[in-house]
Amino acid sequence: MNNFEFLPQFPLVANPLALFGLLLLAGALGGELVRRVLNLPRITGYVLIGLVLGASGLDVLDARMRGYTRVFIDIGLGLVLFELGRRIQIAWLIRDRWLAAMALAECTLSFVCMFAALVWVNVEPLYAAVAAAIGVSSSPAIVLLVARELKAEGQVTERALNLVAINSVAAFVLVTMLLSWIHREYQAGWFVVVLHPLYLMSGSLLAGTVASLLALGLAAWLGKRVELHAALLLAIVVVLVGAAEALKLSILISLLTFGVLVRNLDSEHVVMPVDVGRFSQIFFIVLFVATGAILHIGDLIAGGATAAVYVAARFVGKSIGVLSFAHLSGIRAGSGGLLSLALLPMSGVALAMTSSAGSSYPGFNAKLSAIVLAAALIFELIGPLAVQFALRRSGETQEEA
Amino acid sequence: MSPEMEFTPSAQLSVGVELELQILNSRDFNLARDAIDLISLVDKTPHPGEVKPEITESMIELNSSVHLGFDTLRAELRQLRDQVTRAAAQLNVRIAGGGSHPFHKWNERRIYPSERFKHLLEVYGYLAKQFTVFGQHIHIGVPDGDSALYLAHALARYIPHFIALSASSPFQQGADTGFQSSRLNTVSAFPLSGVLPFVHTWRDFAAYFEKMRGFGIVDSMKDFYWDIRPKPEYGTVEIRVLDTPLTVERAAQLGAYAQTLAHYLLARRGAPSSDDIYFVYKYNRFQACRYGLAGTIIDTDGGGKLPLQRDVLATLEILQTHAAQLGNSEALSALQAEATSGHSDAEWLREIHRTLGSYHDVARRQSEEWAGKAGV
Q1: Do the beta carbons of residue B84 and residue B42 sit within 8 Å?
Q2: Helix crossing, B145-155 with B248-267: angle to 10°?
Q3: Between chain A and chain B, how many beta carbons pairs sit less than 8 Å apart?
Q4: Does the N terminus or the C terminus of chain B have fewer Cβ atoms within 10 A?
């Protein structure tokens, strides 16, 4: 019998709670340091501190620790998507058709540009198509968080957020459709080719719908109490993230559907428009630190030139799409350019999509990663800057003009 | 007399209104900041009157043109409302009436980027942002400056009527103030608010103005935030105590009431009025703000203490023939029905808050009520 059993055994085993706290602390301090010293957005700071701690830097977070961070990323992303979804008003897209047309144009053009550019630099069509589909997305997390941090509101901000949501959905639908092609390429049976995308899409939509109906029913029963509604919504977000994970559904579509429907089905306005952001903030910080930690600087070198072509083609496609409809949509002159800039950051969801697109086929995954992850790294670093610039320049941030 | 104090005569007893309105986002119905985009979008299509910025980016002001009676005024305000509502819908924002926004926080407001408004922020500090309250101003056209001053003093007795009939600012900053019109408390904080000096000729008034300008206290007539103010440039007397009502119909009715009252007062114009009214003016004004039609006012012409509701109804009775002459009977009947029932926009808002349970719902219903048939 060892008398010292009550003491911990060394080396200490990684503990997800302590990890969460440390990531949060590192993010909060790092974000502030970057803001003060380099005058960059805090979000860039979170990603940078993640890079320093992660595989590309000090490698403090080993593989198992990075496994834990997956949960934090999922919850953070779930909260972002839910909040973004709640900002979408379907009625607006019907009223301002040019906004809908703009969304369609920038999605289509960016896909075509990226696909053409990648094929032109000799990427195989299947990889080019999947990468282009992923690139259609714009980052909900970066755009929403920069807008929150700057307390931005106005036409550029709201339209950017709506376009980001549409882009995320479009990217997901495209990737899901391409799944069939991937399955065929790897000689999967027809059964899988048809049913996998179908399950993913309809299952995620259904999960989101059930969650929103549940929220509406319970909110009506609770009555108009801010604290209770906040708790209710947060609880359902976390449950839904967990359920989507367990059921192998898409967190993106489930949570976005939940957010959109809880708002747009609520004709009686039973759910209070509570701001869950203050609570979510801590998950947002951890989300970015953890994202930084799993990115590899090495990818940048490997992806290099191809990624640069991809990034440029994406920006060109989106900008042409936005600019060709800017003057028709109810937006003031000169803000079309700022709007395209705000759509610059590609979604960190790209990381998730990359791994889920090819999860059954490791070989596929590796080839795709070389292109997409390098671009993701570029966007995580310059994206917040671009969005910050666009929102400040549009005069929609809280500071007096 | 300096050129800006030259009184432009108005040929007939005309009426025009200005309405300060709230711009709400459609997410949580807090105040939005889209005034610049909204005004430029509205101005892309021809419309009657004018749509102008106000002190913060969460406000716009609709100006009617000059009217001779209720019908055309109401028709024009409806058209203006519908055009602005449509433009707002394209920007995914909403427009609302009411004298105050129920839950916005004043420190989140931003000053509209124009030289004049930036100057006001510099002069008045936080008062400038707290001035994000929404009023209706009614202009009555008069033939000359002396008539303007007569009318301005004569109207002082009736100020509680306009406050009570338009009262729609029971909530401020997310709390019930207990007032029917809390908006005027915000106005009272300004050093140049209150009432005009008790002078009776335009010459004396112009001299007063020049003196104040000489002291460096004011630059123009715009700097006086009086409850009733002569506006020489337009040739009008401007009543500024009203909250913006919840609907344009009510706004037009109140315009018609002011026009009819002016018709009556100018018709019985006699010896200069006594300044006794200004001894009780603040008391009467407070009663109307605090209790609306349930308040009590002092009648310095021998009536003593009077329930405001009874005084309003008695006045509407007296005005009947004048209303018929001006084509304002429908408007005054509507006000009579409202005053008899004792209802007010402020009580309606409180009722919404009681039944729906949140200030977000109050602001949303304000915007729906404003949009009327145009929908939102």
Answers
A1: yes
A2: 110
A3: 57
A4: N
CB atoms within 10 A of CB A163: 25
Residue window 188-247, chain B: list those with CB within 8 Å of chain A: none
Residue percentage of chain B with pLDDT more than 70: 98
Distance from C-alpha of A384 to C-alpha of A365, rounded to nearest angstrom? 27
Of B27, B40, B87, the CB nearest to A273: B27
Q: How far is B299 from chain A (nearest CA, A)?
A: 45
Give the helix ranges, DSSP H, for chain B.
35-42, 70-90, 115-124, 126-130, 145-155, 159-166, 183-188, 202-214, 248-267, 277-291, 308-318, 320-326, 329-341, 345-356, 359-371
C-alpha neighbours within 13 Å on the C-beta side of residue A212 = 24
Tell me if B90 and A95 make a contact (CB, 8 A cut-off).
yes
Nearest CA among B135, B236, B147 for reference residue B188: B135
The confidence score (pLDDT) of residue B221 equals 93
- Structure confidence at residue B375 (pLDDT): 47
CB neighbourhood size of A239 (10 A):
13
Of A92, A273, A395, Cβ closest to residue B28: A273
Q: At what angle do helices A297-326 and A362-393 cross, to 10 degrees?
A: 50
- Please write the tens of the pLDDT for every residue from B313-359: 999 999 999 999 999 999 999 999 999 998 999 999 999 999 998 99
How many CB atoms neighbour CB A60 within 10 A? 13
β-pair type (B193-194, B225-226): parallel
CA distances from A126 to A272, A300, A364, B32, B275 (A): 45, 22, 10, 45, 89
The candidate with the shortest Cα–Cα distance to B66, out of B129, B134, B5, B9, is: B9
Query: Would an 8 Å CB–CB cutoff place A223 in contact with chain B?
Result: yes
Kindly list the averaged pLDDT for each block of 10 residues, start to end, along chain A of length 401. 75 78 91 89 89 80 76 87 89 88 94 95 88 90 90 92 91 85 77 83 95 96 92 95 92 92 92 84 88 78 82 93 84 83 81 62 72 83 91 85 52
| Contact call for residues A56 and A297 (beta carbons, < 8 A) | yes
**Rounded CA gap, B163 and B165, in Å?**
6
Q: Is the peptide bond before A11 cis (omega within 30 degrees of 0)?
A: yes
Q: Check if B368 contacts A (Cβ < 8 Å).
A: no
Contact status of A400 with chain B (Cβ, < 8 Å): yes
Task: Count, in order, helices (H) and strands (E) of chain B.
Answer: 15, 13
Contact present, A51 and A373 (Cβ < 8 Å): no
Taking the CA atoms of residue A206, residue A210, residue A216 and residue A222 in that order, the dihedral angle to the nearest 10 degrees is -160
Note whether B364 contacts A: Cβ–Cβ < 8 A.
yes
Cβ atoms of residues B79 and B48 within 8 Å = yes
The whole-angstrom separation of Cα A255 and Cα B186 is 44
Task: Tell me how far apart the alpha carbons of residues B193 and B218 are, in angstroms, rounded to a whole number.
Answer: 12
Instruction: For residue B40, give the chain A residue with the closest CA.
Output: A332
User: Residue ranges of chain B with pLDDT lower than 50?
Assistant: 374-376
Paired tokens of A365: 């995954």
Query: HSE of B234 in the Cβ direction (CA atoms, 13 Å)?
Result: 20
- Residue B170: its pLDDT value, please? 98
pLDDT for position B376: 44
Length of chain A: 401
ipTM (interface predicted TM): 0.87
Write the residue in A89, A154, A223 that is nearest to B34 by C-beta. Answer: A154
| Predicted local confidence at residue A161, as pLDDT | 93
Q: What are phi and psi of B354, to 5 degrees?
A: -65, -45
CA B269 to chain centre: 25
Round to whole Å and give the CA distance between A156 and A142: 15
DSSP codes, A177-216: HHHHHHHHHTT--HHHHHHHHHHHHHHHHHHHHHHHHHHH
- Cα–Cα distance for residue pair B100/A369, rounded to 1 Å: 55
